[in-house]
Amino acid sequence: MIDTLNHQFGIPGAVTVSEGNGGLPKVVLTHASGSSCEVYLHGVHISSWKTPSGDELFFLSRESWWQNDKPIRGGIPVVFPQFGGRGPLPAHGFARTSEWQLLCSGVLDNGIVNCDLQITETAETLAIWPHRFALGLRVMLDAHALTVGAQVINTGEQPFDFQIALHTYFQVADITKTAVAGLQRTTYIDTLQENARIVESRPEIRFAAETDSVYPNAPDALRIEDGGNGRTVAIDKVDMPDVVVWNPWIAKSQRMPDFGDDEYLRMVCVETGAIETKPVLAPGEKWEGDTTFTVE
Ligand code: TA6
């Protein structure tokens, strides 16, 4: 299969399809600057995003599973059609454990390297979520930026609502020297305090305990200050109203079998999507949203 995909979608020096961890197929995008990213067909999981000098910007657990019925721990798990345990489906829905189809790859005139992937309903998804849909993801790699665009189309006969998120794990040198900026004055839901609604008073969110906060209708421009690496990642979202900030800290890290006990020290999740405000699609309607990550 990999040779066939490479023949169909490979572009010398820009796009290759190869065997990744666990024998799972992955698409590797390489920009002329030297930046790169890796997208597993399993869960359309972007597992790596590197700067032109080869610095890894995404966190990937050393304990991650690499098997078809489990999500990959790190990078960008795609959450759809349910966020967390907010419904009857498996946590975070089925998109991140589905096998995605590679639709196209290319290099734009401006040098951006891109690929499009998609999943549609299957007998398995219809059995737990009775809706026909097309969920597309477009990955666009530039020298210092990565844009991930999501698209949901209702291809059935009945309206449906859904939740969707890019559950992005960022690698940081030291969580105690890391801050998330841009959420001040936003009211957030603290899932660790019985979903208390609290106005964010901090210009910079810092970490000294488990953090699991949902910011509905958050500002579209955020920043992760990775003080330990002397690096900033800017996050710019369009039509993804909500943000989640998460670090499992010590106890939860110890409860996650696919996450090292000490790995909370080197990661932070800043997630973008539509969670609190569920989009509703009538038959034939389309939802689109995207997030751009820029390393500075
Ligand atoms: O986005 C935060 C969160 O909902 C946390 O509550 C935690 O459960 C995390 O997602 C990871 O969920 P997972 O199902 O991937 O272990």
Written description of the protein model:
With 296 residues, this protein is mainly β. It has three helices and 23 strands. The chain has helices at 2-9, 123-128, 249-255, and strands spanning 15-19, 25-30, 36-40, 45-50, 78-79, 101-107, 113-120, 133-141, 145-154, 160-161, 164-166, 169-171, 178-181, 187-190, 196-199, 204-205, 211-215, 221-226, 231-238, 242-247, 267-274, 280-281, 286-295. Strands 6-7-8-9-23-19-18-13-16 form a nine-stranded antiparallel beta sheet, with no helix packed on it. Strands 5, 11, 12, 14, 15, 17, 20 and 21 form an eight-stranded antiparallel beta sheet that branches. The longest helix has 8 residues, at 2-9. It is globular, with a radius of gyration of 18 Å. The protein starts with a helix and ends with a strand. The structure holds 6-O-phosphono-beta-D-tagatofuranose. Residues 71, 84, 91-92, 167, 212, 244, 246, 269, 271 line the site of 6-O-phosphono-beta-D-tagatofuranose.
Please summarize what this structure is.
With 296 residues, this protein is mostly beta strands. Helices cover 7% and strands 42% of the residues.
Largest sheet: 9 strands, antiparallel
Mean pLDDT: 98
What distance separates the N and C termini? 38 Å
Question: How much strand?
Answer: 35-45%
